[in-house]
UniProtKB/TrEMBL annotation:
<feature type="binding site">
    <location>
        <begin position="195"/>
        <end position="199"/>
    </location>
    <ligand>
        <name>ATP</name>
    </ligand>
</feature>
<feature type="binding site">
    <location>
        <begin position="9"/>
        <end position="11"/>
    </location>
    <ligand>
        <name>ATP</name>
    </ligand>
</feature>
<dbReference type="Pfam" id="PF00579">
    <property type="entry name" value="tRNA-synt_1b"/>
</dbReference>
<dbReference type="GO" id="GO:0005829">
    <property type="term" value="C:cytosol"/>
</dbReference>
<comment type="similarity">
    <text>Belongs to the class-I aminoacyl-tRNA synthetase family.</text>
</comment>
<dbReference type="InterPro" id="IPR002305">
    <property type="entry name" value="aa-tRNA-synth_Ic"/>
</dbReference>
<dbReference type="InterPro" id="IPR002306">
    <property type="entry name" value="Trp-tRNA-ligase"/>
</dbReference>
<keyword id="KW-0067">ATP-binding</keyword>
<dbReference type="InterPro" id="IPR024109">
    <property type="entry name" value="Trp-tRNA-ligase_bac-type"/>
</dbReference>
<comment type="subunit">
    <text>Homodimer.</text>
</comment>
<dbReference type="InterPro" id="IPR001412">
    <property type="entry name" value="aa-tRNA-synth_I_CS"/>
</dbReference>
<feature type="short sequence motif" description="'HIGH' region">
    <location>
        <begin position="10"/>
        <end position="18"/>
    </location>
</feature>
<dbReference type="GO" id="GO:0005524">
    <property type="term" value="F:ATP binding"/>
</dbReference>
<feature type="binding site">
    <location>
        <position position="134"/>
    </location>
    <ligand>
        <name>L-tryptophan</name>
    </ligand>
</feature>
<feature type="binding site">
    <location>
        <begin position="146"/>
        <end position="148"/>
    </location>
    <ligand>
        <name>ATP</name>
    </ligand>
</feature>
<keyword id="KW-0547">Nucleotide-binding</keyword>
<feature type="binding site">
    <location>
        <position position="186"/>
    </location>
    <ligand>
        <name>ATP</name>
    </ligand>
</feature>
Amino acid sequence: PPRVFSGIKPSGGLTLGNYLGAIKPWVGMQGPSYQTIYCVVDLHAITVWQEPAELADGTREIAAGMLAAGIDPEKSILFNQARVPEHTQLAWIFNCVARVGWMNRMTQFKDKAGENAEAVSLGLYAYPSLMAADILLYHATHVPVGEDQKQHVELTRDIAAKFNHDFGREFFPLTEAVIEGPGMRIMNLRDGTKKMSKSGESDMERINMLDDADTIAKKFKKAKSDPEPLPEEVSALAGRPEAKNLVAIYASLSDQSTEAVLAEFGGEGWGKFKPALADLAVEKLAPISGEMRRLMDDKAEIDSMLERGAERAREIARPILRETYEIVGLQYS
Ligand code: AQP
């Protein structure tokens, strides 16, 4: 079956955006149609400063979130990136294949670096090359990601194509981004034009998977909305980013279409919709956060699960890296 690879950075606590936009669809891809490989990409996290004392626990939290949400370590390979050194080995080769001009066009780098592009880490700049290595180390052909990662998957194809061309062999596949349907980009609760992020400034702008029921209720109550009631028609959500986001979260959590949510709540005010949304979120998230806490209590168990996953990942990665070295003419022992 075609191989799927995707990952999450342990750069903060897991958010509702990561869950609805990534983990939930990944759970659905497990099964006979795909071989699924999911990774906690800790090497990507350190492209910006991470407190060493918190990084290992952050890695365990993301792994616990994936397990609690339904990633099954028997059906999928689940591990953390640092345990498989082949990722960085292949990334170096890709640093020598990719062109500086390609990196200069990456919009995520421009967004993250902002005004300060001279002072960010070299790792942040080279991030897409490591991401290409993550994917191509397994010859993965399908990468489920949010819309914001599409450009990086296209760059992965460019790197694969240039490698294949330069060395005269069709060795790396041309990977496809699998973008989930609309509504899968969960926005910031205080500003509906920005995405919900782990590392956003204020905790009030996101729902963390480990938030308790009162915190979830408070965050939705204080979430920015607008003075209008909910519309009857989906088209009337245009130009109302906060309303659109809250309706999309409800639809995604309840596995319904936006139309169905508006059929139920159209014409109602926020005083009715926000508590219903908070109740739904608590109902869906409480079992996951409970299981996450239980898993995180036993660090040794999570670590040995990640270690087993890493061993399985290396069985695939090692021969592909070895062959890459041979193609390039590097001696390897
Ligand atoms: N708000 C979101 N809505 C939908 N999907 C999202 N993803 C992240 N935020 C949202 C998806 O989650 C996967 C893992 O993302 P990541 O952790 O590797 O990187 P990110 O997209 O940069 O996540 P954050 O939360 O915004 O982290 P920080 O703040 O550290 O940069 C990806 O598939 C992503 O699309």
